[in-house]
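Our working data are protein records whose layout never changes between entries. Instead of coordinates, the fold is spelled out as a row of discrete tokens. Here is such a record, shown just as it appears in the course material:
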Amino acid sequence: MSEATHDVELLARALVELNRHGPVLREIGGLFAAAGHELYLVGGSVRDAVLGRLTTDLDFTTDARPEAVQKIVRPWADALWDTGIEFGTVGVGKGLGTDMDRLEITTFRADSYDQVSRNPQVRYGDRLEDDLLRRDFTVNAMAVRITADGPGDFIDPLGGLTALRQRILDTPTAPEVSFGDDPLRMLRAARFVSQLRFDVSDRVRTAIVEMAPQLGRITVERVAVELDKMLLGADPVAGIELMVQTGMGDVVLPEIGGMQMAIDEHHQHKDVYQHSLTVLRQAMELEDEGDRDLVLRWAALLHDIGKPATRRHESDGGVSFHHHEVVGAKMVRKRMRALKYSKQMIDDVSQLVYLHLRFHGYGDGKWTDSAVRRYVADAGPLLPRLHKLVRADCTTRNKRRAARLQANYDELETRIAELAAKEDLQRVRPDLDGNEIMRLLDIPPGPQVGQAWNFLKELRLDRGPLDHDEAVAELLAWWNTRNGTDQPSV
């Protein structure tokens, strides 16, 4: 197929995608035309239309200033947001519920940067061509004129369609200029490599290698957003590889590249870094259909980051990583706090890292009821993710060993189900509550109540549910032994 023919097919596919949004495009186009303003669909929306993956999130650019945009759309919109108005963006909702189209309309931009500040100094432009030139990559620098008749002219002054056909990310201007303006664009390249399965041009890769340290200018919140989008892409491993190979990882996530220094104890992989990428791929394969699980993907990527710090060369010539899950969980907390993730996100990912080896500590199926209860209790609501992480962590090339590990985990899940049928494993609590503990021991609220509660919970985990009299007897025996008395304190 010739390049020209291929381009015609790509544009035909884009038109099909755009016509799916025909009514809203014609209506919004008519509003701006009546007000004497230009309107263009632009950026990721045009790119995704050409790729046949356009969603209900639509990006536009216009010569109208934000205040004029609000005036034009307010009578027509079902919802209006101004959270991005300081950057020239007005958010518009048209429709209701899941059928709502979400439109972002941004005034032509001609931003300036001082090469030091972390955010652009917003400056409005007057020409579409200048707006397209300031965009991150040529595949995001295409536009479609929108009028009362719907989609019109396709505008591609920077070769975006050719780059898209070749599946290459290149910058509209020299990459050194583009990345100097906003260093986050380098990390965005890794995100698009993951999301779109594209590669970067040679000059882009060279510029990233030279300029990666400038990512230190960017706020950690913006970095975290890009990392999440990269991990949730179709091929996050490709994005991670670009990030590590070019030095970006040394700035934003140094623990990942640091795993290249550690040899996996099974000696089945080049290093722990490659093993972790394999675990990430396998965890993705275990995700529920249509569900890209950010917590699981982070845990899979980071589950072994404690290995370099715990590596020991043993006398028999082997390598050990004792307690790397404990060290790794602490490292996860430190890194994710630095990136300002939510407490819930940090807790979930670090707990999965902490627990990912628990299964292997019990050998071939030697699970007592107590061990099963503790496994479920410690995992809590993370248990389904822990199942997937542990299974994904089996990367041995020895088929017999891999089959045995999976069979052992099948047995554990069966044991969990059997025990759950008899008792509530998801809410393992002491058989006596705090009020009854205080009454039986004649103590006021305070640390002693918590200690007694913890004793009863440990007992519950060890022995399962106790009847009331048995729980009372155990509590009193513990209390009397603890206080050196022979008689119940009731």
